[in-house]
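Bug report (template v2)

What were you trying to do?
Predict the complex of my protein with adenosine-5'-diphosphate.

What happened?
Run completed; filing so the output is reviewed.

Input:
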Amino acid sequence: MADRFPPLRPEDPQQIATYALRARLGSGGMGNVYLSFSPGGYPLAIKVVQRTFASDPEFRLRFRREIAAAQRVQGYYIAPVRDAAPDDEMPWYATAYIAGPSLQAAVAEHGPFPVFSVYCLLAGAAEGIAAVHAAGLIHRDLKPGNVLLADDGPRVIDFGLAQADTFTRLTGTGVAVGTPAYMAPEQVRGTVSEATDVFALGHLALFAATGHNAFNEGSTDALFYRLLNDPPDLDGCPGELRPIIVSCLAKDPADRPSVGEVAAFAGAEIRGQTTRPAARAWLPRPVAESLGDYSADNAPPSGTPAERATPVPSADLAAAPGHSAAAPAPPGYLAPRRAPHRRRRRARLRRRPHRRCQRRSGRAGHDAAG
Ligand SMILES: Nc1ncnc2c1ncn2[C@@H]1O[C@H](COP(=O)(O)OP(=O)(O)O)[C@@H](O)[C@H]1O
Ligand SMILES: [Mg+2]
């Protein structure tokens, strides 16, 4: 089993706001992604922006605006943004941690998906994109690396962050927002609409079914030429998937189906094959079997230096047996944003444990009697 949770490197921050970082999940153009947990144990993927971009006011402006918009997106097949601090010294945002590989990684590791899995992928991703559109956003960078595969369906990530992300790749001068291999014709020409994400949905399905892109690899110029002029390369694509993929990949956005139509079509295909849409067996077996490796339970144990260093400055706690005074903050440590609130709450809980228990058991007794 490959180690899905590489440890932090010496140059990594150990803590971001109140979150102790536990492992590296990966790195992209904008910055690194780390695994962490909320105080109650909810797993999070925290993306921390690189210092070079953080110091650029234009980047900050885009990032702040896009994060605020992304926080409005509500849906089942997305990784929701749970927390963010675009104005921190190192800006960051946290999304729900999804325990599974990206479509890109899964196909690279295990090969193309069977037709049923492609329909499930398409139905879920289209529903996720519909949620993004419902919040008034266009994804603009839907691609196999931005779809994660959970045991109960796909999750779209990185929605609405394309402008800040592109800034990191084009140093603010380019107009083409997106990843060249997955862009739509109109996107290359500088406009986007909801249909741009439909084009990407068709591309996702083709990649999942065949393991290759619609306009193949090569220089960006050659890629854009084929994208604008040639039909998509459907080599190896099963016949039943071709009509939906070809219609999504239409050059003219007006000729593509709507996101709702793609979701409805794929959903109907799933229901034609199983009584439970997107039941647990939606993934090819080897991919499904790999999911356990991605469980956040496999994260390196807590009690890392960062967590030991979490300040607990309340006098009575520090004096209590088993508690030592807070260690000096590690490098890269940022002032915890919620510590005062948590501290007050902890102190309140310590003062009144019996009353709380009595009240709770009283209520339970009442409920049972009723
Ligand atoms: N919510 C999440 N849950 C689990 N893993 C995530 C999440 N968000 C990002 N990742 C992982 O972090 C890695 C880097 O993500 P990202 O910075 O978006 O890369 P890229 O720039 O290639 O899009 C990806 O490989 C992805 O698997
Ligand atoms: Mg990404």
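What did the reviewer find?
The pocket of adenosine-5'-diphosphate (ligand 1) is lined by residues 25-26, 28-29, 33, 45, 47, 79, 95-98, 102, 145-146, 148, 157-158 (CB under 6 Å). The CA atoms of residues 26 and 131 lie 26 Å apart.
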